[in-house]
Amino acid sequence: MTVVAEILKSKPDTTVHTVRPEDSVLDALRLMAEKGIGALLVTQDADRIVGIFTERDYARKIALLGRTSAATQVRDVMTPDVLYVRLHQTSEQCMQLMSTNRLRHLPVVENDKLVGMISIGDLVKDIISEQKFIIEQLEQYINGGR
Q1: CBS domain: from which residue to which, for each copy (predicted)?
Q2: Calpha distance 72→87 (Å, rounded)
Q3: Measured distance CA(46)–CA(20) in Å, rounded
Q4: Which of 87, 102, 120, 136 could share a disulfide with 5, CB 3.0–4.6 Å?
């Protein structure tokens, strides 16, 4: 069973991109497009997490409500209650948390410090890899270890 620490180690880039609450949504969208990511943590005062801004927040709270990205601050549309996981938690625990709460991104916090972010894609990749390994082991067993 894989834990979050192993998933983070397997990622090519563990940089967590952030914005401030007073940044414009347009600036946040530009950063997301530049980095090819779907979510930014919103931080304040020495990296204290105060929210998360996602593509879903944009779609539902800007576009559908007729707001403009340039005139709206991230604090006005971010999701303030951020769920997170710790390094020792398993991929299954993370999938359960994401499924139950309909999330696509989870910050990873250890000792009150932000250490990474995992996405649903990271978890799916890990679970597929784990299942592939198990299948290969079973095939070897069935074929007599050849």
Answers
A1: 12-69, 78-133
A2: 34
A3: 11
A4: 87
Amino acid found at 30: R
Three-class SS state of 137: helix
Identify the three-state secondary structure at position 18.
Answer: strand
User: pLDDT of 105-139, one tens digit each?
Assistant: 999 999 888 999 999 999 999 888 888 888 988 88
Q: Name beta bridge partners: 114.
A: 109
Question: Number of structural domains, the chain?
Answer: 1
**Which pLDDT band holds residue 97 (cuts at 50, 70, 90)?**
very high
pTM, 2 dp:
0.83
The CATH number for 48's domain is: 3.10.580.10
Listed in sequence order, the residues at least 6 apart from 58 whose beta carbon sits closer than 8 Å to its beta carbon are 25, 29, 69, 77
Domain housing 34: 4-142
Give 42-56 pLDDT, tens digit per residue: 999 877 899 999 999
Q: Which helix (H) or strand (E) holds 114?
A: strand 113-119
